[in-house]
Amino acid sequence: MAMQDERDNRPADEQISTEAGEVIEPPVQWRPQDADREVYKANIRKRVWNARVTEGTVFKPAKPKPQISDAGEKRVSVYARVSTKSKEQVSSIENQTRYYTEKIKKTPNWHMQKIYSDEGKSGTSTKRRKDFQQMILDAADKQMDLILCASVSRFARNVSDCITKVRQLKTMNPSHPVGVYFETENIYTLDPESNHLLSIHAMLAEWESANKSRRMILSYDQRICTGQYPVCDLLGLRHTVDGDLIIQEEEAKTVRFAYLARYTGMPYKHVAAILTEKQRPTLQGRTVWNEDMVRTLLKNERRWGDLSARKTIVIDYAERKTIKNVDERDAAYVTGHHEGIVTPAIAKAVQMVDASRGMDGGVRELGVIEEGGLKGFISVSPSWSAVDNVTFQEICKSVYQEEEYDQLQHIAGIRNGDEHSNMLSLSFTGYEVAPSAYFIGQGTPTLTICRRKIKFNKACLNKLGLNTYMEVLYHPVLQAIVLRTCEEDAINAISVERLIKKNKVPSFPAAAFSAAVYEKMNWLPEYDFRFRGIYRERDGIRAIVFYLDEPQILVGKHAKELAEKYPTNETGMTCYIPYKDQPQIAYPEEWQKRLIGISYELRKRRDRLVDTITASDIAQASTIVENPLIGKTPSRQEILDEIDELLISM
Fold first, then answer.
1. Sequence-distant (≥ 6) Cβ neighbours of residue 649 within 8 angstroms
2. In whole angstroms, what is the distance from residue 108 CA to residue 333 CA?
3. How many CB atoms neighbour CB 140 within 10 A?
4. Residue 599, SS3 per DSSP
5. Euclidean distance between CA atoms 72 and 527, whole angstroms
6. How would you label 202-234 residue by residue, b for 16+ Cβ within 10 Å and e otherwise?
7. What percent of the chain shows pLDDT beyond 90?
8. CB count, 10 Å around CB of 108?
9. What's the pLDDT tens digit per position in 468-524?
10. Distances in Å between the alpha carbon of 62 and those of 58, 173, 192, 565, 586?
């Protein structure tokens, strides 16, 4: 018992050992959780009550808070801004300038330093406000002590910009801070108590800017839905209070000349050079033109009498980010909204010239042969973009009687295997000849149609003659192309010599023409198609005929991927059958069905047609027809005459 009492009287932090040498940790004494906190608080109270102001202590009170009315000389600048250049806004900025000029004069210790003003600039960002940026630079150079501004919204409508710029003015020169006084809100930024108030007003200014943007969007929606389309002045046209556009005759000369010059194929840089030489002013009064200015002028639909409302939209009012309106918001396109400076047909023709790559000479005319062995063939410039399959069908059909055209389609259907002929099947069953594509050799004239171009081999051009001009004729029903020699002044004459010099492989762009042929022939776009030509010469006039239903199909690098894309048809046969000796060439599936080739009688009829072509047939001039994709336009000579008149009057 004595031993136990002795252990209990030992300090708690001492270790206890048993007789066996085992060390036992002393028990942890319990202590209130907030005991230390109470001791700490008691010490603070004691220190406070025992504190005394010792003898010799000198009190130094803080300077009074800065006020706008403080005495002392101040160099004062003014910042004024309006968001538009309207008459009312110009008046506003002038009133601001005059008001603050007088105010500074009347304040004894203020001296006018400089007035900074941004006219027609949004307050949502400081990036495009040159005077604002210059003011910040001048403040950094200690050129002012104070900036006066009518309101927070005039200074910035963006919370971040407002707070950042005010803080920058205050801290970029700690020994010389520059304050801003917003008169409407009575906020002086060097006053420490102004910080929270400034943040609130900046937030309200930004909210008002966002709300204004939403109101403008709603206003546009309402105006478009009610037919009140927004209009504005542009070169050659002025708007009235009723929303109409009227032609300004003198300015319209500039616009009309640009359209007609481009119609004839004149390059944009040449059009710009002439307008500059003639000192023709833009809407803003500039007399120096460049290519982009002319190109932009010709793309505005109001110049040909239409109106497109809401072509672009602002998706970020703060950054002024604008994008093309592709069904994002309500829009409208009004055809024939007002009298145009040029006709829609001329405007569309100019657009087609721009879309036609690798073609010189401006708008190309379409012609069709109305009689003879090449009746129904259409004269076309393959590089001309204003063509499609429907256009070719309509023009070709226009020269035939209805019964004659139906019979032509029937014959073409028999020849292509789409229709059946009892006479042919009875008389020549089993008698077939190999397709002409089997017999293409190195000296064979060939034509290759690709997805965006047409190519010729040199044998083809040698047959026509290197110093001649050729014309491309196309028949969409007979599915044939004819190359014939022609005079230089033919409507779609192509210089063979120039074609060879311009390209290593004689070719020219033909995106629209190729697309029409691919559609008509139902060809796969991944393939190119090569054709053997049938050459004929009559009295020195030469022609080469290509039938489009007997192609070599050039698979090229697409062979493997096409095999996966078009593996088999219902009969288990591949859509295109590889040629044994030349892996890069394939043939149509229907040739496999026919075992050898095409009907002997059909081939005989075709050869008879080619053999009966006379010199007068080959030389038969085509009749110019209206292009349904463009509409009626003046003749080329009429266009040239009007250009001369415009140049004289400008």
1. 253
2. 61
3. 14
4. strand
5. 86
6. beebbeebeeeeeeeeeebeebbeeeebebeeb
7. 35
8. 8
9. 899 999 999 988 999 999 988 888 988 888 877 766 678 888 999 999 999 988 887
10. 13, 21, 13, 85, 96
**DSSP state, residue 579:** P
Both structure tokens of 122: 């949004």
529 pLDDT tier (thresholds 50, 70, 90)? confident
Q: What is the pLDDT of residues 379-421, one digit of tens each?
A: 999 999 999 999 999 999 999 999 988 888 877 776 555 554 4
H-run or E-run covering 43: helix 35-50
| Tokens (6 digits) for 478 | 């007979």
| 3-class DSSP assignment, residue 464 | helix
- Amino acid identity of 619? A
CA-to-CA distance for 398 and 420, rounded, in angstroms? 26
Sequence-distant (6+) residues with CB within 8 A of 535 are 445, 463, 542, 543, 544
Per-position DSSP letters for 62-123, written without gaps between them: PPPPP-TT--S-EEEEEEEEES--SHHHHHHHHHHHHHHHHHHHHSTTEEEEEEEEEES--T
The pair of structure tokens assigned to 260 is 């007609």
Which of 23-37, 344-358, 434-448, 524-538 shows the lowest per-residue confidence on average (mean pLDDT)?
23-37
Find the helix packing angle between 291-299 and 268-277, rounded to 10°: 100
Which residues fall within 8 angstroms of residue 34, CB to CB, at 6 or more apart? none
Q: What are phi and psi of 123, to 5 degrees?
A: -90, 0
Q: Which of 237, 363, 253, 252 is nearest to 306 (CA)?
A: 237
Rounded to two decimals, what is the model's pTM? Answer: 0.67
> How do residues 106-119 score in pLDDT, each as one tens digit?
999 999 999 998 88
Beta bridge partners of 117: 80
**Residue 469: how many CA atoms within 13 Å on its side-chain side?**
12
